[in-house]
Design goal:
Among the domains are: 31 residues, no CATH class; 176 residues, no CATH class. It is 66% helix and 0% strand. The chain contains 18 helices and no strands. It is globular, with a radius of gyration of 26 Å. It starts with a helix and ends with a helix. One of its GO terms (molecular function) is protein dimerization activity. Pfam families: Dimer_Tnp_hAT. InterPro entries: HATC_C_dom, RNaseH-like_sf. This is HAT C-terminal dimerisation domain-containing protein.
């Protein structure tokens, strides 16, 4: 099952939940946000680099499909004392692995060309300047997207932090697109190695523009709560005029309190809103609760699966589901237990 199929299944399930909530609570104003990671993955569809990835996949399959080919290739890398000692497969369902594989093949392209010539395998693209220019562009763009992907999967991220990462990435796309138009390759280091033609630069610039447009379209739903995200993440600098009417007076009180301002600087956002008195800031606390329950769960999910794999080993075959659930809950929680109260 590939990424798009997974997203479609999740979207269908989510659509049913959205319809149920909308019908049963028609008086409520609902804001539905798509999974940021999935949106980011789907954006790659506008990058027309299949002619690059198909050739790279063919090269890797040729090297790794037969054990003797693989051993001989590894021996060649040892002979040349290259930085990389091997070449890995690309998993079709993981966009992150694609960027790493493209980078590895690019770094080893000279050794790969030599190996293919020795084995009588003709890979004409490795000598095609046009294809190499597209290959170099694909390496740079996937590296940029991998960087965003990794940041989005960080620990303890709230929605406003993830939104900031996406906005920064979109600005980078605009900046790089304008750089390519002006024949500046300072920040496209791999592409700079092949000295692409003006036609290539123009086409690559258009592809970055299309990628920016796709990101803008897919993350449009975050704009509906952008003002509220800014209010919660920066309560002392946000505009009172742009805030919801029920929190404007509370914001004025908050922004006039120097002690609370220092408290926010010295602690986390979550601790800050937890410390606000319910009596003085009821509406602001309520808005904060709505925004702070929107957090990145990828890190927690990966941590849970890793812990489950470690805990549920063959040496613990009698482990029950209830015990496993309790172990996972404790091992993935940041809450410190009060042992004195428990004892």
């Amino acid at each position: 099952m590939n990424e798009i199929e997974v997203v479609l299944i999740l979207t269908q399930t989510t659509a049913k939940i959205i319809l149920t909530l909308t019908l049963t609570h028609a008086d409520q104003k609902w804001v539905f946000l798509h999974c940021i990671i999935h949106q980011h993955v789907l954006c790659k569809s506008v990058l027309k680099i299949n002619h690059v990835t198909d050739v790279v996949t063919k090269i890797i399959s040729f090297i790794r499909a037969r054990a003797m080919n693989h051993r001989q290739f590894v021996a060649l890398l040892e002979e040349h004392e290259t930085e990389h000692s091997d070449i890995g497969y690309h998993t079709a369902v993981r966009w992150l692995s694609l960027g790493k594989v493209l980078k590895r093949v690019w770094d080893l392209k000279a050794e790969i060309r030599e190996f293919c010539e020795r084995k009588g395998k003709d890979i004409p693209e490795l000598s095609d300047e046009d294809w190499l220019a597209d290959f170099a562009f694909a390496v740079d763009v996937t590296a940029l997207m991998n960087e965003l992907n990794t940041k989005l999967q960080g620990k303890g991220l709230f929605v406003h932090e993830m939104h900031s990462l996406v906005k920064a990435f979109m600005r980078k796309l605009q900046f790089l697109s304008s750089q390519l138009e002006s024949n500046t390759l300072t920040d496209m280091q791999t592409l700079n190695e092949v000295t692409p033609s003006a036609d290539h630069l123009s086409r690559h610039s258009s592809m970055l523009g299309a990628l920016h447009g796709e990101f803008s379209r897919r993350f449009e739903d975050l704009r509906t709560i952008e003002d509220e995200m800014h209010m919660i993440s920066s309560p002392f600098t946000c505009s009172v005029d742009n805030a919801p009417s029920d929190v404007q007076l509370e914001l004025i009180d908050l922004q006039s309190d120097a002690v609370l301002a220092e408290h926010l600087k010295s602690g986390s956002l979550l601790d800050f809103y937890s410390s606000l008195e319910e009596e003085n800031f009821p509406n602001l606390r309520r808005h904060a609760q709505k925004m702070l329950v929107l957090f990145g769960s990828t890190y927690i999910c990966e941590q849970t699966f890793s812990m489950m794999k470690f805990t549920k080993s063959r040496y613990r075959s009698s482990l029950t589901d209830d015990h496993l659930s309790a172990v996972l809950r404790i091992s993935t929680s940041d809450i410190q237990p009060d042992f004195d109260a428990l004892v």
